[in-house]
Design brief:
Blueprint lengths: L1 E6 L3 E7 L4 E8 L6 H14 L8 E6 L2 H15 L4 E2 L21 H14 L3 E6 L2 E7 L5 E8 L1 H11 L19 H28 L4 E5 L3 H8 L4 E2 L3 H16 L1
Parallel strand pairs: 1-4, 4-5, 6-9, 9-10
Antiparallel strand pairs: 1-2, 2-3, 6-7, 7-8
Helix pairs in contact: 1-2, 3-7
Family: Belongs to the type III pantothenate kinase family.
GO molecular function, one term: pantothenate kinase activity
Function: Catalyzes the phosphorylation of pantothenate (Pan), the first step in CoA biosynthesis.
Length: about 260
């Protein structure tokens, strides 16, 4: 079985893939000082709790936090006896090489989302990922990542507003009842929610105009359903897009190996 690991700036997600479906998905906070032993203690406890008997033979890792990769490599080698594939490293090949400026390093998460989205929906895509940053990945007709946009994430913007303005409280994002708020919390929620609706809609419109062709907008990330229910911004929503992309890249490397 395959253990797919997606390490983001905020959370790290482990999913067990049996070749046809994900048996479980486990989530923990990202911490660069967490040791291989600590990962295994957390992992094995939860797997046992869910009653899953998983014989892990392969591991693939995508990480936007370079400092955690070493301990995840040790985790894979020590407890599963395998050398993990790490997206972005030379020995991890991609189904379609990115076409960007020479010397540019594309984030592993964006490469993985590109692979997963193209596998499910074909080319000419805009993949919107609501993570620590809100990213827009443009996927060409042939499946290559050809560039994109990076904006501050929703929760990051809320936290920055709270930290920079002492009088403003920290609030949770939600759909406002009306645009004009009548109290401080409602004002912030409206500004963040409708501000991001406008940001997503405008960026996607401009990408489509620049590409001058029809494009499918695919959304992923925990906040995608919140925005979709009130603004109808996306053509497709994919909860497990990143994990699916990891299985696609792993299979590609196995097939050509």
């Amino acid at each position: 079985m395959l253990l797919a690991i997606d390490c983001g700036n905020t959370n790290t997600v482990f999913s067990i893939w049996d070749g046809t479906s994900f048996l479980c998905t486990l989530r923990t906070s990202t911490h660069h000082a967490r040791t291989a032993d600590a990962y295994f203690t957390w992992y094995s406890t939860l797997v046992k709790h869910y009653g899953i008997d998983a014989d892990i033979t392969d591991v693939i890792i995508s990480s936007t936090v370079p400092r955690v990769v070493f301990n995840l490599r040790v985790f894979a080698d020590r407890f599963f006896g395998c050398r993990p594939l790490v997206v972005g490293k030379p020995d991890c090949l991609l189904p379609h090489a990115p076409r960007v400026d020479e010397g540019t390093q594309v984030g592993p998460d964006r490469l993985v989302n590109t692979a997963g989205a193209f596998d499910r929906h074909g080319g000419d895509l805009i993949v919107v990922d609501f993570g620590t940053a809100t990213t827009f990945d443009v996927v060409s007709q042939d499946g290559a990542y050809i560039g994109g946009v990076i904006a501050p994430g929703v929760n990051l913007s809320l936290e920055a507003l709270h930290m920079a303005a002492a009088a403003l409280p920290h609030v949770d994002i939600s759909v406002p009842q009306q645009v004009v708020g009548t109290n401080t919390v409602a004002c912030i929620q409206s500004g963040i929610f409708w501000g991001y609706v406008g940001l997503v809609r405008e960026i996607c419109t401009r990408i489509k105009a620049e590409r001058d062709r029809p494009m499918t907008v695919v959304a992923t990330g925990g906040l995608a359903p919140l925005f979709q229910q009130s603004a109808d911004l996306f053509d497709v929503m994919e909860e497990d897009l990143t994990m699916h992309g990891l299985t696609v890249i792993h299979k590609y490397n196995k097939d050509i190996g």
